[in-house]
Input
Amino acid sequence: MNSYSDNLANIELSQSGDSNATEELIKTNYALAASLARRFQGRGVENEDLIQIALMGMLKAIRTFDTKRGTAFSTYAVPLIVGEIRKFLRDDGLIKVSRENKRNCAVLLRCREKFMEQHGREPHMEELSQLTGIDLDAVREALDSSRPVASLSEPIGDDGDFTVEGTVEDSSASLEHTVERIALSEAMSKLDEQSRRIIILRYFRDMSQQQVADILGLSQVKISREEKKIIAALRRDIV
Output
């Protein structure tokens, strides 16, 4: 794989109209596009077609990437690739947001609002499944299909000190590891605010459970229980 500097040099050449540099970039970053495309399998489109759509997103990223920004190209390209795939699936009516999925989503959102009014917190997916009688996998699919693509520059938590982008390694890292970190970031974006705060304070700021408890006004036992639930939820979502 080309070095980071070679990648930037090829991007500048490609943006100047060098087709050979564009081909080299596609070859170098093909694994990333293919990895992201695989996450959308089983939605009525052949894998090869998904990869071609992902490569279209890659080309869009190559054309618009600012080499002076100081951000790894893979970090910048991921939301454009994912957005291109989701746009294609939605525009062509191929994503499984069909009538049943849309109906499930409407039922789940109404149930969610009612639950929040009664309990003052976001319901877990398991709770939504129990309350609505909708299968847990169908709950995940319906809610996932209703979410917009999150920007990697969007802050995580109230303080804004951390972003999804900040959790992604640069292009010198393993592509597989990069995709895993992106998956973690997306999973975190689905957590409620308190859960995100707990994870940020515990694992990004390396605070003890007691320190987190003091900041959030909760007991250490409560933080311990919530942390276990959050980690389990993140693992389910990533897998």
